[in-house]
């Protein structure tokens, strides 16, 4: 994905329910508005084209002009706090005039990217908690499970509906996507080592440690199985960073029972949840997530 390259470059340069206000990230007034995100989406595409030689591979005045003209077409930033980003990025164009200064142009672009980071929701700390909450949190218990399975540090971040929508919209900017927050359950960011999930699903996972799954309503059983699968799936993205979605989902399905056990389910409950996954959840997946899996999953 094009936007993933931009996010990776930033990393290199840097070496559900709620009835209470969320404390996630920056304050509401500091977070990026829809207007700012629309401008930033166009800016990111320009940034990628310049950084990855999509405007031309031969340094010279023609490339300098192409760089400046494309940036000019983006228009001025909608708010003053975005102006330093554009001003810093614009300084890269003159360095495209000579092969010996292109590296300097890339340094300038990376510097400009770092100016974006403080504005993004996921670059702010979340409250750490090992228990269910009503506000967005970084879940210590789920993070420990994910880190153990992935054999690398992972932080599971659980977001209220409001914060989730904002997070996904910001992520869409970097990934050049238009994912619907209401249709997305989770995603894993390989650059940051973070797994993002809905708060409601994270809270469901904590119930596995103290409730009898088979006494829950059918609706809650399906939600429980779906929550376990979501966590297992996103962990497998960390385990298999280069795998396609269908491969990751097969791996998640094979790990679903073990994931449930790690969360506190009994053997019988873990098997029950796998059965619900096979009968109620997996059949509704789109083709991107489906392929024949080894074993008895299908």
Q: Layout of helices and strands, plus pairs?
A:
Layout: H1 2-13, H2 34-51, H3 61-74, H4 83-90, H5 102-114, E1 128-129, E2 137-139, H6 140-150, E3 155-159, H7 161-175, E4 186-189, E5 194-198, H8 199-207, H9 218-239, H10 245-262, H11 267-281
Parallel strand pairs: 1-2, 3-5
Antiparallel strand pairs: 2-3, 4-5
Offer a few descriptive terms.
5 strands; alpha/beta; 2 domains; five-stranded mixed sheet; 6% strand; disordered N terminus; 298 residues; 52% helix
* Biggest β-sheet description: 5 strands, mixed
For the termini, the CA-CA separation is 30 Å
> Considering DSSP H and I runs of 4 or more, what fraction of the residues is helical?
40-55%
- Overall shape: elongated
Cross-sheet strand order for the largest sheet? 1-2-3-5-4
- Please tally the β strands and state the result: 5
Number of domains: 2
Structural class: alpha/beta
Helices and strands, in order, run as HHHHHEEHEHEEHHHH
Instruction: Compute the number of helices.
Output: 11
Mean pLDDT: 88
Low-confidence stretches: 1-5, 10-28
Percent range for β-strand residues: 5-15%
Radius of gyration: 22 Å
Task: Provide a descriptive summary of the structure in words.
This protein is an alpha/beta fold. It has 2 domains: 94 residues; 166 residues, no CATH class. The chain has a 5-stranded mixed sheet with strand order 1-2-3-5-4. It starts with a helix and ends in a 17-residue tail after the last helix. The relative contact order is 0.11. The N terminus is likely disordered.
